[in-house]
Amino acid sequence: MEQLTDNCVRRAVELLAIDSPSGYTWLAAEHVMEAYQSMGLAPEMTRKGGVLVCLNPEAPEEDALLLEAHADTLGGMVTEISGTGRLHLTPLGGMEPNNAEGENVRIITRSGERYTGTFQMKNASVHVNGEYHSAKREYKGMEVVIDEEVESRADVEKLGIQPGDIVCFDPRTVVTPSGFIKSRFLDDKLSVAILLELAARTAEGELRPARRVWQHITVFEEVGHGGSASVPEGVCEAISVDMGCVGDGLGCDERRVSICAKDSGGPYHYETVSALIEAARRGGADYAVDVYPHYGSDVEATLRGGHDLRHGLIGPGVYASHGYERSHRKGVCNTLRLLWAYLA
After folding, report:
1. Closest Cα to residue 231, out of 58, 65, 342?
2. d(CA 232, CA 225)
3. Residue 344's closest CA among 168, 232, 228, 202?
4. How far apart are CA 339 and CA 183, in angstroms?
5. Model confidence pTM above 0.85
6. pLDDT per residue as tens digits for the range 89-115
7. Cα 130 to the chain's mean position, in Å?
8. In degrees, to the nearest 5, what angle opens at C-alpha 299 toward C-alphas 191 and 237?
């Protein structure tokens, strides 16, 4: 599993370098498409822009399994250009302004131009702003300072920037010698990388799933409807491979795989959760079973879309979710072990 884990980390680093906030995911989707094609698989792009692929089409259609992970991330969108040439934003997904303060950003215009900037609170100099420490970090009090010589709305408009343009936050990806993986948007690009590696091992014949397996890399999970469509015929069970929560009251840490029994949407299917626990034991995975207080997943969107199937949720432990996140190689390895045992 060491080599497979190395491959997953490499795939994750490649994907994390591609900006893909919800609504601007085509570059990441193309990357995933090309990865599947290089394996000899036949992926298809869904109308929503996600990627759907069958790993073993020779297997019987009935009782198929769908694995879901999402390539879209948090981000921002320009809502207004101020009179002083600063950009006001609305979030894409749950990007918290207090987590993003001081972060470098990229602004992508409709014509494809890219500009850089920094997301700051208004009047950001501590030596000038006497209320800097007490000011609430919220979007109405924050702005993007563009790295161009602009002093007015007209100056910014001349650059081609307008409301509706996408703002991408720097992931700042670091892999430490001790095995920690630090980056924005490990949720959920780390698990996309895990699914890609499982697909590669299946294509090479190293992993032989006991039933037909589909993978759906969705692109609207962070805004709630990523997995709501594109469920192939014959799928009776769907598992979201997302991030495992790490925090007070939970058993998971960055080195384990988390199996979610219940989140804000209610309990996951009892038989599926039980089977995932058994697969973790069988595969020698270090795991935790947890209840997430504030969480929603792709597979719950699948259920809300009207699909009749069993559902589950797992993922490598990720600390500081929706902030500057951290996981570990061991969490990746344990997720691989669980999924390998579940599929074989």
Report:
1. 65
2. 17
3. 202
4. 24
5. yes
6. 999 999 999 999 999 999 999 999 999
7. 38
8. 100
